[in-house]
Amino acid sequence: MTGSVDGRVTAGVLIIGDEILSGRTQDTNLRDIAKYLGVHGVDLAEARTVSDDLPEIVAALDALRTRYDYVITTGGIGPTHDDITADAVAAAFGVELEEHPEIMAMMAARWGEAPNAARRRMARVPVGGVLVKNPVQGPPGFMIGNVFVLAGVPTIMRGMLEDVGHRLKGGAVTISRTVRVEGSGESVIAQPLEAVAKAHPDMSLGSYPFFGDGIFGSNLVLRARDASELAAVVEELIAALTAAGIEGVREVDGV
Description:
The protein is 37% helix and 27% strand. By secondary structure, the chain is an alpha/beta fold. It has two domains: 10-167, Molybdenum Cofactor Biosythetic Enzyme, Chain A; 175-252, Alpha-Beta Plaits, CATH 3.30.70.260. The strands form three sheets. Strands 2-1-3-8-7-6 form a six-stranded mixed beta sheet, with helices on both faces. It has a four-stranded antiparallel beta sheet with strand order 10-11-9-12, covered by helices on one side. The model has no long low-confidence stretch (mean pLDDT 92).
């Protein structure tokens, strides 16, 4: 695999659309994709957002697909003139676009007539691509090489993801545990937190402050692939915080 390092299976996400960059639309797909990939043992290593510009999409796609095992794109596969993701993917792979007969048949069955020119744009798939099912509404996405091309609408994108998981050759699944510290700011917990992090450089340990309702503190999230190692480091962290005189330390479910 392209991006497998030390047993990791990696992915990049390419979010496509002027509406995301302009702020008119807030992206939620990245969060859902990251969670979905994690369940399948794939680490999301990078995410990029690009405008509806064909050369920019091609350049970003080429960079991601050569660097990581998988790439998931979202957006730009609708019926309008600025939906150019299929064109860009075909250009990146050096193949032509063709109207997929299965999609054309789906459209005809749904609308009871031959699709018009705008709808036919959504039937275009790069030669060699295979379909990704869409259980929600509208035409399917597609996969070519190590690239999955999905819709930008969140509900449709999540539906399409269900046809992606079985195609992934994932690695070991990352698991996480959370230590919550209430009543102490990050400056107070920084030293014991840093000491534990330095002692375990291969483990992910992040601090996420929270404020509200008169309560403040940090959620300390530890992530690893080995459950027993993770459990040991959680105990070590709690002990280090307690030894530093920090109170309000406990393990909780989630962040």
